[in-house]
Amino acid sequence: MTTNDNYEIDELVKYVKNFKDSFLHDEKLNYLQIETMIYLLENNTQTITQLAEKIDTTPASTSIIIDRLAKKEMVNRQYTESDRRKVYVSLTETGSQEINRLLIKKNEIISTSLSPLTSTEKLIFAKLNELFQKIND
């Protein structure tokens, strides 16, 4: 990699950080809480262990995230009769409304950010996004 390549990667990282900061500005939820809620929106009821694997944290850390979301009335916990250690988590109606609002906000920020790009540049951006998702998987 050349110095120029490193500079371009640094600029991309700054752009992503700025996007994340503008998305979270004035919000009462942090990024991991939002990521957890998006996963619950897409997958309905999940166990703490399933959530931990998806958001790449430990079950203990995920329990803390769920505790904070439960205090904000964003999620419900359901305990199984056969094994009280197994906890299922789902979004509340309030949580569903909030995550849908945040997804709309995210799409508006993305749309505004991409508005100066040409159609071809937007396609390139979409392809880059696919490549980053492959890297993360």
Automatic annotation (TrEMBL):
Q: Does the keyword DNA-binding apply?
A: yes
Give the Gene3D superfamilies listed for this entry.
Winged helix-like DNA-binding domain superfamily/Winged helix DNA-binding domain (1.10.10.10)
- Give this protein's Gene Ontology molecular function annotations: DNA binding
**Keywords linked to the UniProt accession:** DNA-binding, Transcription, Transcription regulation
Q: Which InterPro entries match?
A: HTH_MarR-typ, WH-like_DNA-bd_sf, WH_DNA-bd_sf
User: Key word Transcription present in the record?
Assistant: yes
HTH marR-type domain mapped to chain residues: 1-137
Q: Which Pfam families match?
A: MarR (PF01047)
PANTHER family associated with the record: TRANSCRIPTIONAL REGULATOR, MARR, TRANSCRIPTIONAL REPRESSOR OF EMRAB OPERON
Q: What is this protein called?
A: DNA-binding MarR family transcriptional regulator
